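Request: How about a record?
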Amino acid sequence: MNLEFSIEETVKTRYSTRTYTDQPISSETKEKINTYISTLSNPFSVKVSFKLLESNTSTNSEKLGTYGVIKGANNYIGATVEKSELALEALGYEFEKLILYLTSLGLGTCWLGGTFNRSSFKNAFEIKENEIFPAISPFGYPSSKKRIADSLVRMVAKSDHRKPWSDLFYNKNFTKLLSLADAGAYAFPLEMIRLAPSASNKQPWRILQDGTTYHFYELQAKGYSTSFGYDIQKVDIGIAACHFHLAALEKDLKGEFKKLQTPTLDVPEQTEYIFSWITA
């Protein structure tokens, strides 16, 4: 299947951009972005809404509040969804697909889930009361000048480190690790999951191969989502699903996501079944 960009190249190119230049984004590029947003969908049949905000100056943008994490950004995207089953997963899926598209256009982005003033952005984006508003991202042209703050954030979040296969992927049960050989053609989609971004780089996804089915689980960090009023790590599961699905499409691996009855397996503590990928 022809995709708008190479999933492997784009995933490996993307990084969290926290400092931006004042180079404006052309109207042609903005039109491409809006057109791409209009085509977005997700495998869970959940409506996700995107809102774009352009600030006249980076000073006005900073007044919105990103607690010093972002510098120089004049453009932001926010995503909202109404509360429903798999809503946050759907939002994570579509938002990550959009972020990968922006990366393919040469634009920098940065997932923000906790480090932005939700109240000020909620007013600026005109978010409705019935909408969950879990994340935003600045977008623009990355600055070649890195701030000390950039390095500190990356160091604290361990942004450059991803968990090994042995921490993430299992075969038939959670006591048997999945080897590259046993993963076969699905080693590539799983590797794209392994490289995915996540809140505080916690990488909460755990994937269990069961024959030709891949069960997606969330390893919940104790107390992590308490302050949000919803489980923000479910957005991360949606990001993982996006990487997996796009990689499968790129390799012409057919299948679909379905939420099954919870598989009758012994699972580690704080581990929740989310959905499955069933190969065709």
Summary: The chain has two domains: 7-155, 161-279. The chain is about 35% helix and 20% strand. The longest strand covers residues 131-140.
